């Protein structure tokens, strides 16, 4: 092996070791089947795009949050959304408030749903990849295949996004 190749190989091995050490030797996060989408780091701290309440049969309270790219696109009315946009829908069972009879509060978490915009990687689905997670684990492949069909049937003209930025 030539000395320059050996140095390059050594640098690459050191970089991989450094990354593994920085991650604490953790396994990569579980990826959703079909699209390979994962739960984004820090999504619980992202800004709110809009709340939602889902009627029967789900009976859920939901909150859609977005990364900085998504927030900028919503505020600037940029459509189609740019690559790098990530939307996350968090959902909880709706339960009556014990303190105020007409109010609802979040109960147990039900799902976390993720949309990732990457026009090259997900060209066949309008540029969007989808993932659904329960307790941090992706749900089965059949459920993932329904995501795009539902979005395409109802909101294709809005770049496949149901959510509107709350005023």
UniProtKB/TrEMBL annotation:
**Which positions carry the signal peptide feature in this UniProt record?**
1-22
Gene3D superfamilies tied to this protein: Cytochrome P460
Keyword Cytoplasm annotated: no
Indicate the segments forming the Cytochrome P460 domain, all copies. Answer: 40-163
List, alphabetically, the CDD domains matched: cyt_P460_Mc-like
Q: Which domain of life is it from?
A: Bacteria
Question: What are the record keywords, sorted?
Answer: Signal
Q: List the InterPro entries hit by this protein, alphabetically.
A: Cytochrome_P460, Cytochrome_P460_sp
Q: What is this protein called?
A: Cytochrome P460 family protein
């Amino acid at each position: 092996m030539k000395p320059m190749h050996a140095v390059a190989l050594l640098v690459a091995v050191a970089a991989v070791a450094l990354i593994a050490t920085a991650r604490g030797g953790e396994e990569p996060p579980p990826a959703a089947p079909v699209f390979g989408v994962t739960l984004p780091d820090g999504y619980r701290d992202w800004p709110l795009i809009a709340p939602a309440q889902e009627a029967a049969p789900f009976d859920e309270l939901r909150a859609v949050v977005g990364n900085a790219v998504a927030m900028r696109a919503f505020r600037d009315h940029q459509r189609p959304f740019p690559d790098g946009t990530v939307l996350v829908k968090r959902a909880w069972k709706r339960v009556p408030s014990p303190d105020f009879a007409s109010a609802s509060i979040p109960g147990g978490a039900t799902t976390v749903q993720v949309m990732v915009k990457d026009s090259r990687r997900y060209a066949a689905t309008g540029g969007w990849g989808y993932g659904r997670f329960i307790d941090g684990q992706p749900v089965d492949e059949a459920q993932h295949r329904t995501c795009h069909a539902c979005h395409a049937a109802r909101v294709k003209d809005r770049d496949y996004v149901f959510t509107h930025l709350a005023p």
